[in-house]
Amino acid sequence: MMTVFDLLSGALVGCCLIGAFYLAVAAWVVRRFVALPQPRPLHRPPVTVLKPLHGDEPNLYENLRSFCVQSYPGIQVVFGVRNGTDPAAAVVERLRVDLPEVDIELVVDARVYGNNFKISNLINMVARAKHDLLVVADSDMRAGPDYLDGVIGPLLDPGVGLVTCLYRGRPVGGLWSQLGAMFINHGFLAQVLVGRLVGAGDGCFGATMALRRQTLEQVGGFEAFRDRLADDYALGAAVRGLGQRVVLSPHIVDTQVCEPDFATLFRHELRWARTLRSIEPLGYGASIVTHPLPTALLLLAASGPTPCTVAIFAAVLACRMVYNTVTDSALAVPPSASWLMPLRDLVSVAVLIASFCGTSVTWREQKFRVAADGQLTLDGDLRP
Fold it and tell me: pTM, whole model, 2 decimals?
């Protein structure tokens, strides 16, 4: 007769095997994705790039400059801040001096329309956009010179309503930045691609959201997302609601990961996790199987070092190491330290569990509550 312990051990073994299989599939799908040809537009209509800003960030000048020096002609770049004393405003002014040939505009507007301050910023900025093709990109992204070609190419298909991009993490700093980059490169990015493989469709990510002005107006403008935590996901869903496709461009941008300590890393990833939980709680909870190394450690601790448990642990560890190597190589990022793998996976599992143990998130030094439908509620006084 099977005992509860036998059932638990069997479940742990099953999770380990599923997780090892996931790592193999994830490594394959990442390599396949980065090998896709980069699309090129048949013609190049003018584009406005919208970059909402808040505060200084490591390498901010280089990040913003990469969007201003595209090989694509006819670009307007609109930056936005809520306050003229924001350090990001000085960085934009430096860009205007260094790149006088580029159409750069800075919008300073303190008006707030909802609890999502980034969306409020975009509402203030979009009125200054000169062109009908709009590209929204987060401030911590850095793009290659052919970025706009890779984004605008798919958007010229009349059936495509929005084009988005994945991003890879490049650490700027020490241990915690490395762990943050590993979360992006070994966790988030692969989960998105495996999701596409099994029919989950293309997501929509703040790294890039390219769409026509007409499409934005049809979904209610940025105003429709002013109280959404996952504004990028909500925008993608609204575009699909119009009967138009959301396409993931094979162009991958870089994000500078600069987590100074564990507390900052945990808060950042907890906000991301509670965002996902608000979108798809069951699916996100099931993603625990994508971290088989902690499961194998738990199996080893619970059942002892038997030949079977040791073999399972060794197999999972080998799969994890191969997955890291293949993914880092495919993404053209420096190899991640093998000794960080157990710590990275333990933090990921801790964040996943914590995401179901509360509803608050910290975003740009302001606390919010997240409702079950993803609506943001301000927790405390509005900061200037």
Answer: 0.88
